[in-house]
Design goal:
heterodimer; A: 486 residues; Arc Repressor Mutant, subunit A; 3 domains; B: 493 residues; Amidase signature (AS) enzymes
Chain lengths: 486, 493
Amino acid sequence: MSENKNLVEGATGSWEIVLGLEIHAQVLSDAKLFSSAPTKFGAEQNTQVSLVDAAMPGMLPVINEECVRKAVRTGLGIKSKINLRSVFDRKNYFYPDLPQGYQISQFKYPIVGEGEIEIDLKGGATKRIGIERLHLEQDAGKSIHDQHPSLSYVDLNRSGVALMEIVSKPDMRSSEEAQAYVKKVRAILRYLGTCDGNMEEGSLRADVNVSVRRPGEPLGTRCEIKNVNSIRFIGQAIEHEARRQIDVLEDGGSVRLETRLFDPKKGVTRAMRSKEEAHDYRYFPDPDLLPLVISQEMVDALAADLPELPDEKKARFVREYGLSPYDAGVLVSEKVSAAFFESVASECDPKLAANWVTGEFFGALRKAGATIETSPVSAKQLGELINLISDDTLSGRIAKDVFEIMFETSDDAAKIVEERGLRQVTDLGAIEKVIDEIIAANPDKVEQVKAKPKLMGWFVGQVMKATGGKANPSSVNGLLSKKLGL
Amino acid sequence: MSDLTKLTLSDARAKLMSKEISAVELTQAHVEAVEAAVPLNAYVTPTFEKALDMAKASDERIAKGEAGSLEGLPLGIKDLFCTEGVRTTACSNILDEFTPTYESTVTSNLWRDGAVMLGKLNNDEFAMGSSNETSRFGPCINPWKASGSDADLVPGGSSGGSSTAVAAHLALGATATDTGGSIRQPASFTGTVGLKPTYGRCSRWGITAFASSLDQAGPITRSVRDAAIMLTSMSGHDAKDTTSVDIAVPDFEAALTGDIRGLKVGIPKEYRIEGMSTEIEKLWSDGIDWLKSAGAEIVNVSLPHTKYALPAYYIVAPAEASSNLARYDGVRYGLRVTGDNITEMYEKTRAAGFGDEVRRRILIGTYVLSAGYYDAYYIKAQKVRTLIAQDFAEAYKQVDVLLTPTTPTAAFAIGEKIDDPLSMYLNDVFTVPVNLAGLPGISIPAGLSSEGLPLGLQLIGRTFDEETLLRVAGVLEEAAGFNAEPSTWWRNK
């Protein structure tokens, strides 16, 4: 591994942060992992619950093959080994929102083994992060503590929903890397259509393992921060937790192996339970389920059906469109952005398209709180606007004004340009005439500019003002230089 | 009328089909018999009204020529089977007045074929026990008495209600379940036929789970033919139970050809345990002679790991049970005893809901799965289980079925062993290996003890070869000619 440039300074020297993540991703499936109950988000409480999900006497789990296929598809997407034989185990503990008294998970033999993904860092750098495993497991229900003064309620809608737990190796060294990792995993899941990646609705959440050590020393004792549900919070939680551990160690203390929770309001982590209080989950193979055996043919068919994934798409954008790795990385981070870009680029110059999509277009969407799906400007319209720049109909500056109007009205660029008379003046005679008038009217400035060439900007401004900004800037510059003898 | 309860299931079926009797008459006779047998405590939830309604519907179907294979035949159902709209408790307080909104696959199959439900039968709490004394409804009493004694005897367990109902003519047949001998041992104690099919033959869906990798449903009846008829209906692949096996269900009755010439019957030497009574020895050698006379070849075989079966069973079964019974937590259904917080509610609910034997097994199971003990107990027991299955596989290279005693003793008295779990567990020494290997086994009444109590012989078959098993069982039954009946002492109480 390359030398870590992310060292953190403490009072007694520098420290290295070591991070590993467990991402819980809800499998995009109409039914639960072991029952046919629906999985719709936001449904009325306890309406998405089958007899199996409520753990009624004598009920038995039956594996949902769609979830198995999605797990394998995801495993292939994160370039990991697919295990043709895996085993479901019971993880035993009591909790009111865990009806069976155990969670069905995969402990010893997960469906997906080791692999790796590449994360994108600032300035177009990349880093490989190892994947330890991916396994399938059931989600629990939800305990609700705020609807009655002394009682808690239980909502079993989520009970039994299929989750993929994706476990990384402890390969990350900064909060930026951890955030980039989550972003990349989420992008891959969305490309694959195996998880919607929606962190607000809880379909993607992360447990973050944090430890610190002196550079070159063995791994320190880790703390696990449970259930962090936004990329921003992941960053905050890591920063706070690493600082806390460094402070403890520098004060001569030692870090305790424990589970912690991140409090987003206060921006701090606090202890949830220590190892001594940790559950003994008494894992054992679920006797209701036979080992899960899948065929190589099924894996091959799923592999053949994989879409182009973010890294491949990024490489292609750099290669085919000549984009910078950074721009390509921004565009491929979401499947829809990449598709939008390609659609714009099919109409016009790809590099200009990339600049416009990542610049003005994304900026306007953000400002308006809109998405690509709800954008008032279509890819075709944006492409047409860019073509008006390329053929000198519009200057870049006017084009931005036109884009603003397009975003408000959804009108085509050509129509706006015609109606408002925004066509760029490229007629050299017309520009020359304006320049001559300005020179004639300002003899003092003409004198000054000979000594201070920077003053030419004032003349450019005057010409633009007189032409309503429509004069072609390079023509103005060229003519002015000549006329002023610069 | 009460004569109708003397019929076997197959005879009753013939009389119904020939319209010599009606399903309502047949059911009414059984209802009366059940009502007169309160001291036996076999039925914990009778469903007489439902039974008569079902019988009426059966008569209509018979009249229309639409009769199913069990049309109009009144059966008792072990309380472990979930029955829609009928209280189902597994004879545990923890389930309180739980009434399922669903019907187990096995009982659904019986009703599909026209059978009539007389009610729910007593059993050991969650099928944990060999005497039916751990039931929340109190012990079920064996219809048999030792000669010269009035002491109440246990009917075996856990399916004591099923064996009692069949032996006392309170049903033509009964469903039961067998995790370590819970069908065969009670059958042996009551002079009835008890058949545990191959693991995976019957769906477990809707049967309150004890130990998922061992539990299997089967019938208790008064004849081998009746067992074959019931099994044909109960069996079959069920998509809702992925451990049920997707193979065709044969007509098991057709397997009863009476011809076992040339079949090889294995006699496992390890079943000749130390201290075995001479009457059990005698019974076993009688069985050998009968099968030999019928043309079978007797082969001595060895099942070397037999002695490890019982200890392995008492690790695997409680381990699974400790997890299977975690769902009874007072949160969603069944008993709830409130507490100041959730932990207290769990503790109070489970303390009040589970009896001593169930608690003992939950504790054992929790212990053997705990960190640090798992490898030494659970993993080792699983290895033993594999070795036991290999023993049988080796034996079946030489033989077609195995013949053993079903139990080391005849029925014992109520209260005799309840405070001595180890001696209670020894009851299952001959039956437990069969569950560990997932094989089919059947107990046939073969004789009476010196005290006049029934004794059973067990036949063990190859995986999914219940047909050969039943064929040999039929011959054994014929040769044994067991036709003793208990006196109907309960009617005078």
